[in-house]
Amino acid sequence: QVQLQESGPGLVKPSGTVSLICTVSGVSIRASKWWGWVRQPPGKGLEWIGEIYHSGSTNYNASLKSRLSMSVDKSKNQFSLELSSATAADTAVYYCTRDGGYAYGLDCWGQGILVTVSS
Amino acid sequence: QSVLTQPPSVSGAPGQRVTISCTWNSSNIGTTYDVHWYQQLPGTAPKLLIYGNTDRPSGVPDRFSGSKSGTSASLAITGLQVEDEGDYYCQSYGSSVSGWVFGGGTKLTVL
To answer: What's the burial of A7, exposed, middle or buried (CB within 10 Å: 0-12/13-18/19+)?
Structure first.
């Protein structure tokens, strides 16, 4: 059974960096899948952030690309997100996801972690 | 404003049937890519409900069904239950943005 678990600071100062890790269990991150992030501001809808392949290839949401970085740690079966120059607009629940592909959607989600950007 | 357009809310009585639409412009989504649907119950993470326009993951009741035609898709829920209350999102691949795009979400209320 595949499980994803987000971890990281729940509070980030304005202009700081949102840094999150997703730990994958039940399957190797080397499996032929993309691993990504989706966020949801309080009371609002879902926004796709981006995704990474185990090789390190990435696809980013164009609106976040200039501030975004993702990486993979295969030895720990983890992948991570860094979103720099954070503002209050980045306050959201961040979910890590497994991408099953164009025909299969995001077939596995973490429980989510609330990140608040505030001084 | 989302690339995929959904009604903000729908409602129905227990046992009834409701549908949720998802529409888009052919210039930003086209007709090539599949549509997927997610269910988000209050206080929980989204869960894949329908993938590949019409298919249900293991464990999803057959009360939930999906369809797609041209530049629109629909999610139908029959035999509404109180526990179906929550938010429903459609998703597809946006060729114009080279990434996944979501609808704005539809809040289902079971009266």
So the answer is: middle
How far is A95 from A36, CA to CA, in rounded Å?
8
Tokens of A95: 């979910």
How are strands ordered across the β-sheet holding B18-23?
B18-23, B72-77, B64-69
A59 neighbourhood in chain B, CB within 8 Å: 98-99
A41 touches A55 (CB < 8 A): no
Residue B33 touches chain A, beta carbons under 8 Å: yes
Neighbouring CB atoms inside 10 A of A100's CB total: 18
Any B CB within 8 A of A98 CB = no
Dig out the tokens for B71 from the structure: 């530049």
With a CB cutoff of 8 Å and minimum separation 6, the contacts of B109 are B9, B10, B11, B12, B85
Q: Give the C-alpha separation, A21 to A70, whole Å.
A: 10
pLDDT in tens, B53-87: 999 999 999 999 999 998 999 999 999 999 999 99
Assess whether pLDDT exceeds 80 at residue B27: no
B-chain residues within 8 Å CB-CB of A111?
44-45
How many whole angstroms separate alpha carbon B79 and alpha carbon A22?
A: 37
Give Cα B87 to chain centroid, integer Å. Answer: 9
CA distance to partner chain B, nearest, from residue A59 (Å): 7
